Structure to design on (107 residues):
């Protein structure tokens, strides 16, 4: 098992990706808010908001591996959009096997 598999944050993200079938999406904050107080302590944070940068980084890594899409205002973000480019809320959805993202938006 990898380090990612042992993290409560990553397990919760994987659970959301498994449960939400495209085209359904979720907000990264839903993932971190679903963590218990004990899981937050394991992640070494005091509250769920402290995990928002980490969940976005994790989502970006999975996006680069082709496992999920990131949306903003209902449109899939172009693969050239970076975390530093983001302004405002995002949504996430998994990519079905054999599916490639379409309708990508450049920022």
């Amino acid at each position: 098992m990898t380090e990612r598999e042992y993290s409560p944050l990553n397990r919760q993200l994987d659970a959301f990706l498994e449960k939400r079938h495209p085209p359904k999406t979720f907000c990264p904050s839903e993932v971190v808010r679903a963590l218990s107080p004990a899981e937050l302590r394991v992640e070494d944070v005091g509250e769920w908001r402290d995990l928002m940068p980490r969940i976005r980084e994790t989502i970006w890594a999975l996006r680069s591996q082709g496992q999920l899409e990131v949306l903003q205002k209902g449109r899939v973000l172009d693969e050239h959009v970076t975390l530093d480019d983001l302004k405002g809320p995002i949504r996430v959805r998994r990519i079905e096997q054999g599916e490639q993202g379409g309708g990508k938006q450049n920022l």
Summary: The CA atoms of residues 8 and 38 lie 10 Å apart. The longest strand covers residues 68-72. The chain has five helices and four strands.
